[in-house]
Automatic annotation (TrEMBL):
Signal peptide: none annotated. GO terms for molecular function: oxidoreductase activity. This is Pyrroline-5-carboxylate reductase catalytic N-terminal domain-containing protein. PANTHER family: DUDULIN-RELATED (PTHR14239). Keywords: Oxidoreductase. Residues 4-91 form the Pyrroline-5-carboxylate reductase catalytic N-terminal domain. The lineage of its organism: Bacteria, Bacillati, Actinomycetota, Actinomycetes, Propionibacteriales. InterPro entries: NAD(P)-bd_dom_sf (IPR036291), P5C_Rdtase_cat_N (IPR028939), STEAP_metalloreductase (IPR051267).
Length: 216
């Protein structure tokens, strides 16, 4: 059992928190504030999780999951997340696209640049919130596979173990920049793949992945 801080209480964050609670983790959910209304909403929508401020949620957490609109990561205090394993579960949706200066970077490399003291790992971005609620926690064979990418090998192992605990099969996709292999707009994104198929797709060169997407 791990202490998991989920930052973002929207559809994805709430679904991740519910699944983590069901998997036996101690879950802290951080939203925009720590108001009585927010605490009541968390109690109703994510039974077993506790509402916290960002600072309280991440204090002592084994890992932190960012489930925010991508642009919101720039509002996070890097000092608060320094030293933590941080899962980037965010996507670069067109309405919140990067600035021209950032367009050449994957979302996770931008997050890592903003949070230089954190150990950022890309994961949990290519599964829908509805799937997190509906996919069986145990018993599926083969299990749905989810990619994990990061530069810190210890952090990758921590996140892979968390992904496995949620009932999915973690597939190591390589360094953080390889998060582009399962980003929005790739054949992997939101696809229900087993580990073999996922490994094959994330191993393709970027040009091949683009051609596969056009062909689809």
């Amino acid at each position: 059992m791990s202490v998991v801080a989920v930052v973002g209480a929207g559809k994805l964050g709430s679904a991740l928190a519910r699944r983590a609670v069901a998997a036996g983790h101690r879950v802290r959910l951080a939203g925009r504030d720590d108001s009585p209304a927010f605490r009541a909403r968390v109690a109703a929508q994510v039974p077993g999780a506790v509402a916290r401020t960002l600072e309280d949620a991440v204090d002592g957490a084994d890992l932190v999951v960012l489930a925010l609109p991508l642009a919101a990561h720039r509002q996070l205090d890097p000092a608060v997340l320094a030293g933590h394993v941080v899962v980037d579960a965010m996507n670069d949706w067109p309405s919140g696209g990067p600035s021209a200066a950032d367009a050449s970077r994957t979302s996770s490399t931008r997050v890592q640049r903003h949070l230089p003291g954190a150990r950022v790992v890309k994961a949990l971005n290519h599964v829908g919130y509805h799937d997190l609620d509906d996919e069986p926690l145990v018993g599926a064979s083969p299990r749905r596979a989810l990619a994990v990418a990061g530069d810190d090998r210890s952090a990758v192992r921590t996140v892979a173990a968390f992904v496995d605990s949620l009932g999915f099969q973690a597939v190591d996709a390589g360094p953080l920049a390889r998060g582009s292999a399962f980003a929005l707009g790739t054949p992997v994104f939101d696809g229900a793949l087993d580990a073999r198929a996922l490994r094959r797709l994330v191993a393709r060169p970027a040009a091949d992945r683009s051609r596969a997407l056009v062909a689809a």
